[in-house]
């Protein structure tokens, strides 16, 4: 109890982790609720809609993730500048992320225009492909608002001030959820739009987030302290460092999502029952996964601030504090997934679906939820240690680790299993579980080697000379 009390009060302890992380958890929970209710509404709208939603959203996020993973690294620069006492550089760091959003938005818009050809290559049923294309194209065209919103949110999250981000995301969810329902089903003044309505509701949430953060970030007081106006110029040196550390972060996020997307593609080759059950199980997993990502961002910020002040012991201490909290949460969610799968899966039951029609989906979904429960525990280790390594700047190792694991554990084995065995739906799920187990082992090992202690994200001239090593 004495040790727990000390860890609660200490710098880098539980209290600081929760102060930074809980608003991010609530933010991610807001995103989770939006995604979860989106799937529920689509599931109740039609089985085809929920079947198309998973591959379409995964395919979109596959491309979006590269730019998102890169832009999110602005928070580490802000964290290290804050830890080094160089708050005058915070605005400039944020602006480099905004500049990166320009080509990102253009590329995503182009992908939205040609996404029909992408889905044609996959070979899904034509009716599903039409819905997948409609969803992808709509969200891709509005993605720029979401990307700039992420860059602006780093101004707060990198400094460990996460409540404004939480409030903005909660407001966006408040707008998204009822709009989602109305656009999908054609309620109030809106026509019935099905899966396209779900995509438009997502874009509306992007716009709300963007507008609110612009109003919060760009103030006279913030300019005096952080140069949010004065630091608008393109800084070639700083942008170069941002690309050096941020691009591997974007690539690793892309490769991770590629592995998950490939999982989705392979699942799509099975029957509609197996596809629907898998989509439901993955959608339920977001209840655990996305809030844990919020704590992963928290550990990146805490480690980044400790690295900026040259306090390596505090960086290690902070990671362990966050790890304890995430394991507690993910373990609890795993128990819920095992003990109450029928209730969670029942939320996705389509309107008018008979007991006989839903029974095989439910029976398979209950089994798949056991995979999800074990997956969440392994994912807790991978998420926290990856966050710590990112905060220290070890993004290239993360990139190579995820790249090799995605190919060696997910893509190649799934191709071989599908083409040369009588693989059933358990094949992809076993590969997915093994994938996260390998990643958790890699990241735990890497952090314990201490290689990250020799890395510096910001220029060495900006790092204070004081602090405990």
TrEMBL record:
One Pfam entry name: MatE
InterPro entries recorded: MATE_fam, MATE_MdtK, MdtK-like
Alphabetically ordered keywords of this record: Antiport, Cell membrane, Ion transport, Membrane, Transmembrane, Transmembrane helix, Transport
Molecular function GO labels: antiporter activity; xenobiotic transmembrane transporter activity
Subcellular location(s) of the protein: Cell membrane
GO BP annotations, alphabetical order: monoatomic ion transport
GO cellular component assignments: plasma membrane
Membrane association type: Multi-pass membrane protein
The keyword ATP-binding appears for this protein: no
Domain of life per record: Bacteria
Residue ranges crossing the lipid bilayer per the database entry: 20-37, 57-78, 98-122, 134-158, 165-184, 196-218, 245-267, 287-309, 321-341, 361-385, 397-420, 426-445
PANTHER family: FMN_FAD EXPORTER YEEO-RELATED, MULTIDRUG RESISTANCE PROTEIN NORM-RELATED
Listed name of the protein: Multidrug-efflux transporter
Organism of origin: Pseudodesulfovibrio senegalensis
Taxonomic lineage from the root: Bacteria, Pseudomonadati, Thermodesulfobacteriota, Desulfovibrionia, Desulfovibrionales
């Amino acid at each position: 109890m004495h040790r727990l009390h000390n860890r609660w009060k200490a710098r880098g302890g539980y209290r600081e982790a929760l102060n930074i992380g809980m608003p991010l958890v609530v933010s991610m929970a807001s995103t989770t609720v939006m995604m979860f209710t989106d799937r529920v509404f689509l599931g109740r709208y039609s089985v085809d809609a929920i079947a198309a939603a998973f591959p379409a959203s995964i395919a979109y996020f596959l491309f979006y993730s590269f730019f998102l993973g890169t832009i999110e690294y602005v928070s580490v620069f802000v964290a290290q500048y804050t830890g080094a006492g160089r708050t005058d550089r915070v605005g400039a760091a944020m602006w480099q992320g905004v500049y990166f959003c320009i080509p990102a938005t253009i590329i995503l818009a182009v992908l939205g225009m040609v996404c029909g050809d992408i889905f044609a290559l996959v070979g899904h049923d034509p009716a599903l492909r039409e819905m997948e294309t409609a969803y992808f194209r709509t969200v891709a065209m509005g993605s720029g608002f979401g990307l700039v919103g992420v860059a602006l949110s780093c101004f707060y999250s990198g400094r460990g001030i996460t409540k404004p981000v939480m409030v903005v995301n909660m407001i966006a969810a408040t707008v998204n959820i009822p709009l989602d329902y109305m656009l999908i089903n054609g309620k109030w003044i809106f026509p019935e739009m099905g899966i396209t309505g779900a995509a438009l509701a997502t874009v509306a949430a992007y716009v709300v987030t963007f507008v609110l953060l612009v109003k919060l970030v760009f103030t006279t007081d913030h300019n005096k302290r952080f140069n949010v106006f004065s630091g608008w110029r393109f800084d070639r040196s700083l942008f170069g460092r941002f690309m050096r550390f941020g691009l591997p972060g974007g690539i690793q996020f892309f490769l991770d999502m590629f592995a998950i997307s490939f999982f989705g593609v392979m699942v799509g080759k099975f029957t509609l029952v197996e596809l629907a059950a898998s989509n439901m199980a993955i959608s339920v997993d977001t209840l655990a996964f996305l809030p844990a990502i919020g704590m992963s961002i928290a550990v990146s910020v805490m480690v980044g601030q400790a690295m900026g002040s040259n306090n390596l012991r505090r960086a290690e201490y902070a990671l362990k504090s966050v790890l304890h909290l995430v394991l507690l949460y993910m373990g609890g969610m795993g128990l819920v997934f095992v003990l109450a799968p029928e209730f969670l899966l029942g939320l996705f039951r389509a309107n008018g679906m008979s007991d006989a029609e839903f029974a095989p989906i439910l029976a398979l979904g209950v089994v798949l939820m056991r995979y999800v429960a074990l997956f969440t525990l392994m994912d807790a280790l991978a998420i926290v240690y990856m966050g710590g390594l990112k905060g220290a700047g070890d993004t290239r190792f993360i990139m190579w680790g995820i790249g090799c694991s995605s190919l060696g554990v997910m893509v190649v084995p799934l191709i071989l299993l599908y083409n040369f065995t009588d693989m059933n739906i358990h094949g992809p799920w076993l590969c997915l579980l093994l994938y996260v187990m390998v990643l958790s082992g890699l990241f735990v090992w890497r952090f314990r080697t201490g290689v990250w202690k020799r890395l510096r994200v910001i220029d060495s001239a900006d790092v204070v000379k004081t602090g405990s090593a």
